[in-house]
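[agent] plan:
  1. take the single chain provided in the ticket
  2. run structure prediction with default settings
  3. attach structure tokens to the ticket
  4. add a short note for the reviewer (M.T.)
[agent] executing step 1
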Amino acid sequence: MSRFLSNATNRIDSKGRVSVPAIFRSVLAQRNVQELYCFQDFVFPAISIGGADLLERFERQIAAEDPFSPGANEMSLLIHGGGVFMKLDAEGRLMVTNFIRDFTGISDEVTFVGRADHFQLWQPDAFQVAQVKTRGERRLASRRSN
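[agent] step 2 finished; step 3 output follows
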């Protein structure tokens, strides 16, 4: 199965690089992803990362709308204006740039979070808070529906 699942936290080295977990690198290899499309997530303080297919999916959504519509323009602003292409180095490390740090608050560690067809980079404490909050909201909603 070539899905991004689970999460892992890795330290950023002195040169500003972080090793992408082996399980995520294997999914990238299975999908033959050479260049990473990275964008500022629409909801969370995280950087979402996938292959060109992820960008193409968003661009198909934009193309299906009137190019002058507010929705198409807003989507383009988010996926093009808030996105960059990056590559892993030969050892499977990603450079943690200001594009990543400024949006996420990441400093010395990165939590990698699987999201099925892509993965995300989170500041570790922010990921823990979001997970606890989401679990609490789901439990509350479940109790209300019973």
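[agent] step 4 note for reviewer: The chain has a mean pLDDT of 94.
[agent] ticket updated
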